[in-house]
Amino acid sequence: MTMADQHAPVPPTPHITTPITADLLRGALDLEHTAHGLQPHRLPAWARAQCADGQLAMVEAQPSGVRLVLRTRATTIELDTLRTKTAYQGAPPRPDGLYDLLVDGQLAGQASTTGGNVLTVDMATGSIETQTGPTGTVTFTGLDERDKDVEIWLPYSEITELVALRTDAPVEPVPPQKRRVWLHHGSSISHGSNAASPTTTWPALAASHGDAELVNLGLGGNALLDAFTARTLRDTPADLISVKIGINLVNADLMRLRAFAPAVHGFLDTIREGHPTTPLLVVSPIHCPIHEDTPGPSVPDLSDIDNDEVIFRAAGDPADRAAGKLTLNVIREELSRIVTQRATEDPHLHYLDGRALYGEADTADLPLPDQLHPDEATHRRIGERFAALAFGTGGAFAPQHP
Predict the structure, then answer these.
(1) For residues 206 and 388, what is the distance between their CA atoms, to the nearest angstrom?
(2) Predicted confidence band at 375 (pLDDT cuts at 50, 70, 90)?
(3) Which of 297, 285, 290 is nearest to 126 (CA)?
């Protein structure tokens, strides 16, 4: 070896491009091949075809709880994605979504991407404008050069098309773990609204505490007792199931008490067709002062839209409860009654009052910033309490030992 050879720079390790396939992804129920790559969906194609609602199409494609899971010795990981962000006309830009990197279950990095598309929503008219943009790259460097399990959790608030995965060492799928699969359905709070990052939504935190594999069907604005959602829950393999019902029915002023009770029964009947003995936990709404005794709909206060947060108010009339309009207290009472009635023949059905997760007393130190959605600290409180109440001793999801 010559002296020049001894001092020559070491060439960088060539990056390996690995096709992104289903065995590298968890938390998605469908994968769509697009012109750019692979787009995870949280509802199957047949379910998406049964509803033409634009908001549902947007939120089910936002990959809350979806993550890449792989085993590798790589020290550098690059992920090309095409994101689609949501913006609101006249409101400040929303923060970029975060990608959380876990190494052997521990948070090891966070990053955002650039470029992408923007959907601008006019809350006054409901119209949407689309602006297209380029693909961006998320890069994680400095990882230990050893065999390790790596998870990249995708942003819960950005539609994400997966374009390319590059590493400086080969990757392989992680074999299925023995952890129980927890299938959860709920509203924007379960989706992750205002959480700090994808692994700090309350369901992700609760799953971590409960040592469960999360499949999150929290669908912002769309926990509406839809039959296609019930059939999706029915057909999805799971060891544990929870459904958080109530706030979106009030938000949308969607139905009256006469329709609500049969709809809940039908929703639970459908789930039970595929999961006759799976622990099934019905969770009522957390405390939300504007709708405890005032019906919906929830409407944004557009007069104050220049502030950092859009504030919501209840537009219904409390007097309309007599005509069957729904409030959160009405829904909690009815859900408790329904579960109590059904549990006489279904010992694996359980009820959890959402106020045990976040109640009136919690509003003193952790008020809902926009009157509807929790902040980062409240997500953590709800996740920890759910883990204790559901996964802890005596809870609906407590491990059953022979």
Answers:
(1) 8
(2) very high
(3) 297
Which of 96-100, 264-268, 310-314 shows the lowest mean pLDDT across its residues? Answer: 310-314
Q: Residue 2: its pLDDT value, please?
A: 36
Which of 231, 186, 178 is CA-nearest to residue 204?
Answer: 186
Confidence (pLDDT) at 13: 57
Decide: pTM greater than 0.85: yes
Query: Is 38 exposed, middle or buried, given 0-12, 13-18 or 19+ CB atoms closer than 10 A?
Result: buried
128-131 and 67-72 strand pairing: unpaired
What tokens were used for 102? Answer: 């876990």
User: With 70 as the cut, is the pLDDT of residue 8 above it?
Assistant: no
| Helix-helix angle 227-235:257-274, to 10 degrees | 20
Question: Are the CB atoms for 375 and 194 separated by under 8 Å?
Answer: yes
- Please report where in the chains the tokens 């969607």 appear, as a residue: 254
pLDDT of 301 reads 82
Residue 125: Cβ-neighbour burial (10 angstroms; 0-12, 13-18, 19+): exposed
**What token pair was written down for 217?**
């069907």
Q: Average pLDDT of the chain?
A: 93
Pairwise CA distance, residues 98 & 195, whole Å: 10
Residue type, 138: V
Nearest to 242 by CA among 177, 179, 292, 187: 187
The phi-psi region of residue 65 (left if phi > 0; otherwise alpha if psi is between -120 and 50; otherwise beta) is left
Fill in the DSSP letter of residue 80: E
Cis peptide leading into 297, omega within 30 of 0? yes
